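Let's inspect a concrete specimen:
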Amino acid sequence: MDPINPGSEEYGHDAEGEETRQGRGGTAPAPVRARIVRLVAGELLLTVNPVDGSEIEPCPPGQEPEAPRPRTAKERAEVARAASPPVPPGPAAPELPLLERQEERERLTGILTRGRSARLTGAPGSGRTALLDAVAADCADLAPDGVVRLSGHHRTPTELLHELFTAVRHAPGQRPDRTALLDRIREVGAVVVVDDLEFGGTALDELLTAAPECAFLFAAGPETPAPSAEARVEEVLLAGLGRGAALELLESAVGRSLTDEEANWAGDLWFESEGLPLRFVQAGALLRQRDRLRVSPAEFDAFGALEEAFGPTDPDAAAAVAAAAFDGVEDPDVELREIPLPSLGEGAAPAALLASRLSRSAQAALRFAVALGGEVPHQAHLPALVGDTHADAALGELVACGLLSPVGPRYRLASGVLAQLLAKGYDQETADRAHTVAQHYAWWAAHPSVTPQRAAVESDALLAALSALIPDTGEAAAEHRATAVRLARAAAPAFAAGQHWGAWERTLRAGQEAARLTGEVAEEAYFHHELGVLAICNGNLERARAELEASIGMRGALADKRGTVAGRRALALVADLSGDHVGPVVARSEGPVSPPRGIPALRGPAALPGPAALPGPEPVTAPLSKGPARTSAAAASFPPFPDFADEGPTVVTRPDAVGNVSRPGLKDGILNGARRNLVAVGAGALLVAVLGTVVTLGATSGNGETPATDRITSDSTADGSGTDDAFDDEESTGGDGGDPAETEGAVATDSASPSEPPSGTPSEPTGSSTPSAPSTSGSPSSPATPTATTAPATTTPPPTSTSSGSSHPTSSTPEPSSSSSSPTTSSSPASPDPSTPTPTDSSPPPTAEESTTLGAPSTSETPGTESPA
C-alpha cells in the first residue's frame, strides 16, 4: 500500500472513512426524536409535546381508555418493589434488630386490624421507618388490596390519592379527574402506610374521607400539624431506647462486644442523645472505623497500597481481626495502634468525623448532597458526577455509616447530617456542584431512553438543583440560570408524562422564574403555556386563561406561529369549558357609529333581483300597470329570507365611521344573523354580475354592421312558461329597434329629470306605427335564462312610434313582455325628452311579427286591474 495514498479505491476502500474520522465527511448523526406521550386526564386528551408545548383537547370518540382494573398480587408486589429504595452496592450494612418496639408494634397492628387509622409520632432518628416496615409485614394479608407504601415527603393529599390509585389499579395512560378519582378510591380496600407525612388538620381529613375503606398508618415528626378533633386517628408516641437496648444496638452495629471503656462512652452518649437509635447506628460506624484504623495488615500497611488500589478494607474482615486481637490471639501480621475513642461531642454529632474516614468518592457524593440541600442523586448518576467509575459503591458506604436514610424510592441525608456538614465547611463551591448536577440531569432527562417513571423518581434531586441555581448571584449567575432553564425544559415533559404533576408544576414555576431572570422570552412563553395546560387539567380555568393569554402574547411578539396556534387552541378549550361564548354584539351608546352593512331583503327565492331593488342616491321610479310608482325603498318591505337558527343581530361597524349617516336605501333592510348576511352578500354579488352583463351587452349591441342581428324574431323569444311574481303587472311598449346612441341619450335624460307618473292604460300606437298583437302565451311566463339571441333586446328598447311626424309621449319606462325574466327587466330606460332632438332611425320598421314579440300586452292581464306584487 502506498504510504502517501493509504486509501485503495480499487478494493472499495475509498477516502470516505478517513474524511469521516477527520470530521470532514460522512452523514450527520440523526437528530434525537422528541418524546411525545398521550394521557387521558379526565375527559380530556393531553398530548405532552416538549417542542411547541403540550396540547389538550376533548377526548375524541373511540379513544377512551379501558376501565381500570384491580392489580393482581404479582403486580402489587412489583409496584411495592419499585417504591422501595434500591439496595446499594458495596459491602452490606449490618442487620440491626428492632429493640423495645414490640408494644408499639402490637398496638399499631391491632388498630389497623379493626379498620381504624393511626398516627405514629416520633423525633427524627427515633426509628419510625423501621417500625413501619415491621407493622406492614404483619398486615400483609389483612386487606383485599394488600399493603401500599407511600412517601409523604413533599406530597399533597391529592398527590397521595393519585399514587394510591396507581398502586392498586391498573390504568396505564390515565389520570382521572377529581370526581372520578374519588369514586374509584372509595372502592379501594388496603392498608396504606405513609411515611414522612407533612400535613395535618383539614388536609388529613380530606385524605381520610376520600378512602373510607382504607386503614391508614401515618408517620410524622413532632412539628407536623396534628389531626383535627373530628378525625378518628389514634395517636401513638415513639420514644427513645433505654440504656440496655441502646448498648445492645451498638454491639449489633459494631459486630462485637464492647469493652468497658466503650460501654462507659456509650452510656454517656445515651444520656446525651436521649436514646435515639440513629445516634447509636452512627456510633457503631465510628467504632468500626476505629477498629480499622487500629488494625492493618503488615504487608499493606507501609504505603497503604490496598486502600489506594481497591478502596476501603472490608469492615467485617477488619472487625473480625480486631475481635481476635482483643481476645488475646497473637498474630504477627496484626499491629494494634492506639486510637482514642471519639469525644462525646463527636459521638453526638458524628457526621464530619465519619465523612473524614470515608473514601474520596463517598466524600464527593456527600458534597453533592450538601449542594442539593440534602437530596442524594441515584447511585447510577454518581460515577458521572464524581468522575469515578466505581463511585456507585459510595452509596453503600454512606448507608452503612448511618449518614443516609431511605425516603420513598431513594435516599437523602439523615436527620441532622446536613447541619453538621455545613458547620465543617462542606458548603464550599455548592453553586458549581449544583450547576454540574443540573447539566447532567438536563442531558439525562431529555434522552429518549429514559422513561418518564425513572425521571419521576429523581424529581426531588432535579428540583433541588433548580432551587440552588435560581437564587445564585455570583459571577456565573447568568450561566447557572440558563442551565436551570434547560433543565426545567427537559424535566417538565418527563414529569408530566410520568404523572408526577406536583413536580411538574414546581418545575414549570422554577423554569419560568429562571427564564424571566435570563430574558429568554421564548422559554418563558413555553412555561406559561404549560402552566395553563396544567391548570386546565386541574379544573382551574381562571388561572389557565391568565397563563395562556400571557403565553400567546409573548409568542405573538416572537412570531412563533406554531406556539401561538397551540395556545389559542387551549384558550378556546378554556372558553368552551367555562361557557364564555361570544354573544350578540351590542352597539355602543357612547357616540354615533357607522350604519350596519347589508342589502335590502329580497322577496321570494324565485325572484331575480332587478334595478328596482337597487339602492341609489335618489329613488328610481318603476312604472306599474296599475297603481302608484314603486321606488327602491319599497324593496325593503318584501318578505325577508326564511327564518334561520341565529336570531341575534350582527352589527358590523367601522372604527373610522363615527358620525356617519345611514346609507339611503338600506333602511329596514338589514338581515338578522350571520348566515343571513352571507346570503345577502351572495345576492349582492349576483346583482353585480347581472348588471355587468347588461352593460357589456348594451355596449356591444347596435353597431350597425350586422343589422340582421339587431332584430328579434318569434323564434328567439324565451319560453312563455311563467313570469316573475314581482313584475306580473308590468308591460313593455313595442316599437322598432333604436340606435344605441339614442337609447343611451334617453336613459341619461331620464336620470337627469324626474319621471312622469305612468298612465293608467298601456300606450296606444298612432299613425303609421304597427299595432301590437296579443301575446300567444296564455299564462305568466317563468323566469328564463337570457341567451345570445335575446341579448340585443335588453339594450335596445323600441322608441315610441309617431304618426305624420308628430310624437306622443308614453310611459317613462317600457313595460316588460311575457318573457319578463329575460334581461329586459334589468333596465328601465325612460322616454326621450320632447325638447331633445331625436336622431333619425335608419333601421327598417319592424314587421308585424316583431311587434308581436316586443310590445304586445299579455292576454292574461286585464286593463284597469293590477297584479298583486
User: Anything to note?
Assistant: The mean pLDDT is 72. The longest strand covers residues 191-197. Residues 241-348 form one domain. The longest helix spans residues 674-700.
